Write a sequence for this structure.
């Protein structure tokens, strides 16, 4: 399985993503955001970082990049599209996932390890996890507060599109790091092929990085549909 | 002709604005009587147009593109020929 990792001006988790794909036994290549075609790729990954310096809004300007038409096609055709952190912001700004990511309630850039509960494990992204398993993953963002209107939230809940939720690691009460509604940390589209999440699984694929709870996400993708 | 459009982008009413809250706290700390503060963005765009009607249409099209309808509203605050 061959992955395209899109580089926007300001992306900075691109190398981490490639490391994770390779660690899981897949191929990954960088693609500059002005490209219009993604030939020979099975999936596309939008990495974390600060595309266009987060100007206007995080992910807003990157969402208008030429490559995004091709990302839309991937999403439509049922191929995998993953956006992590800034990539998640790009996916919501592009309308490929519902809702928006607003400034953290505490107004801080928050960089720490958090608990992330797996809400369902019948998708390739999570098939290597147990349902209800709480992962330990890093976050690093200033605008990660998931917001959507009440109708969208109830649709996400009702259709099981919330894939990851913040959860206590050690029973702590204050486990939601940014004020996300419904403790949402990651969602998928109706087709189950487009994933957006704020925590960084690609930064947790080796003990030397501080944890390996992100690796099964990539291993699950390797198995295909 | 050239026109300058001033576009105001604000968070929708009811969406918590932590930036506004922070500014509010500072103003209150300085002794000002403040009920609420909301922080928005002002964009000044200069562009060519044949007349005011076309300029208005172009400015509105750009504003729709630049504001995120999920969480924001936009207003064309001003439009002036340069």
């Amino acid at each position: 399985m061959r992955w395209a990792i899109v580089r926007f001006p300001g992306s900075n988790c691109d190398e981490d993503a490639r490391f994770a794909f390779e660690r899981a036994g897949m191929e990954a290549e960088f693609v500059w955001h002005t490209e219009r075609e993604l030939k020979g790729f099975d999936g596309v990954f939008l990495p974390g970082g600060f595309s266009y310096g987060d100007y206007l809004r995080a992910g807003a300007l990157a969402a208008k990049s030429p490559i995004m038409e091709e990302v839309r096609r991937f999403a439509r055709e049922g191929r995998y599209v993953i956006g992590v952190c800034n990539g998640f912001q790009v996916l919501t700004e592009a309308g490929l996932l519902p809702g928006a990511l607003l400034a953290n309630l505490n107004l801080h850039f928050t960089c720490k390890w958090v608990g992330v509960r797996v809400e369902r494990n019948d998708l390739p992204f999570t098939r290597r996890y147990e349902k209800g398993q709480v992962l330990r993953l890093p976050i690093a963002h200033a605008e990660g507060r998931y917001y959507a209107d009440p109708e969208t939230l109830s649709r996400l809940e009702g259709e099981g599109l919330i894939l990851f939720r913040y959860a206590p690691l050690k029973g702590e009460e204050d486990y939601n790091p940014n004020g996300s509604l419904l403790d949402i940390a990651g969602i998928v589209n109706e087709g189950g092929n487009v994933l957006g999440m704020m925590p960084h699984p690609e930064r947790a694929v080796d003990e030397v990085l501080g944890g390996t709870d992100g690796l099964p996400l990539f291993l699950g993708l390797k198995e295909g549909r | 002709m050239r026109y300058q459009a001033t576009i105001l982008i604000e968070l929708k009413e009811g969406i918590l604005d932590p930036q506004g809250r922070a500014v509010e706290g500072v103003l209150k700390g300085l002794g000002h009587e403040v009920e609420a503060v909301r922080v928005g963005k002002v964009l000044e765009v200069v562009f060519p147009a044949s007349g005011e009607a076309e300029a208005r249409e172009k400015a509105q099209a750009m504003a729709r593109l630049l504001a995120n309808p999920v969480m924001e509203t936009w207003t064309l605050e001003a439009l002036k020929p340069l």
Remarks:
- The mean pLDDT of chain A is 96.
- The first strand of chain A starts at residue 2 and ends at 7.
- Helices of chain A lie at 14-23, 67-76, 86-93, 150-158, 215-222.
- Chain A touches chain B at residues 56-57, 60, 64, 92-93, 98-100, 102-107, 147-149, 179 (CB under 8 Å).
